[in-house]
Description:
By secondary structure, the protein is α/β, with parallel strands linked by helices. The chain has two domains: 8-90 and 282-316, NAD(P)-binding Rossmann-like Domain (Rossmann fold), CATH 3.40.50.720; 93-274, Rossmann fold (3-Layer(aba) Sandwich). It is built from 14 helices and ten strands. The chain has a seven-stranded parallel β-sheet with strand order 6-5-4-7-8-9-10, with helices on both faces. Helix 5 (93-108) crosses helix 7. The two termini are 28 Å apart. It binds (2R)-2,3-dihydroxypropanoic acid (DGY). (2R)-2,3-dihydroxypropanoic acid is lined by residues 46, 67-69, 92, 280.
Amino acid sequence: MHKILDPGPALLAEVVELVSYPEGQPLEESSLRRAAEGYQGILSQVMDPIGEEVLSLPGLKIVSNVAVGFDNIDLEAATRHGVMVTNTPGVLTDTTADFAFALLMAAGRRVAEGDRELRRGEFHGWGIDTLLGQDLHGATLGLIGVGRIGGAVARRAKGFDMQILYTDAVSLPPEVEQELGARRVELPELLREADFVSLHVPLTDETRHLISTEELGQMKRTAVLVNTSRGPVVDEAALAAALAEGQIFAAGLDVFEREPEVHPALLGLENVVLTPHIASGSVRTRSEMCAIAARNLIAGLRGERPPNLLNQEVLDK
Length: 317
Ligand code: DGY
C-alpha cells in the first residue's frame, strides 16, 4: 500500500501485516508486481496500473482501490484470476461535486487568472473591463453523465438558477428531471446549447476522447468546459488548440490524459484553470475513503463479501 490517512492504518493494523510500497519505486506494473509478490491484498490508488501482470500473482485475493474510479484496474482480468476488486463510491460524491462547481466558477469568472495578475503587481485599481467573465447564474449547464456526482452537480446548479441539459445512457426518473428542471438531450445539442459543460463519465473505450476537435467546435465561443472525471475523456491537444484560438471561453481541469504530466500547451494558457486531481480532496472525505478501502480489504481477506465489491462473479464461481 501507499500512504493512507487515519483511520485507515489503524483499522488495517488490527487485522493484517502492513507493507508499504517501497519509496521511490516507479508506478509501473512490473514494480507493483514485485512489491505485491507473496501478499494476499493490495490497497491501490488511482495512479497504480493494475493489470494482468499483477492480477496473476498467486495467492492474491483482493485489490481495494482508494477511489470511486477503477479504470486503473483491469476488472476483466481480475475476475478471470478470481481476484476481488473494490472501490469507495458515495462518500466522495458531494465533495467532488463541490469541486466541479469551484472549477466552473473559477474558469467562468477567471479567478486563477486574476490571482496571477494581482501577484504580478498588475492590479492598478478597479477597471470597468477587467477580466470580464461568464455568469453562472441563469446559464445553461450541460452535464455529460448524471450518475451520483453529475446528479450532485445538478442539485447545486439548481441553486444558481441554471437550466440543466444532460446526456446519459438512461434517463433520470421523471420526478427527478422535474425537480431539477433537467432535460435529456443528445450530445451535439448539449454542446450547442450549454454555456457550461461538466464531465461526469467513467473512462471506458466509449468515453476516451469523447471531447475532441469536433465536439469543441460545436460548443459556444463563450462556453466553459470542466473535467473532474478522468483526463483521457478529453483530447488535451485539441482542447489546448480550442482554448488558444478562443473557440471556447475557458476550461477547468482537475484530471489529465497522462498524469502527472500536463500537456505543455495547456500550461502556457491563461484561460484554463489546472488543479492536481484534488476534486475529492477534503480532509473528511479522503479520510473516509481510506476507512472504506481498509474495511473492503479486511472483509476480502477474511473471506467475506466486501461492501463495495465490483466483481461479484468472483464469489459466484
Ligand atoms: C476517484 O475517486 O476516482 C478520484 O478520481 C480520486 O479520488
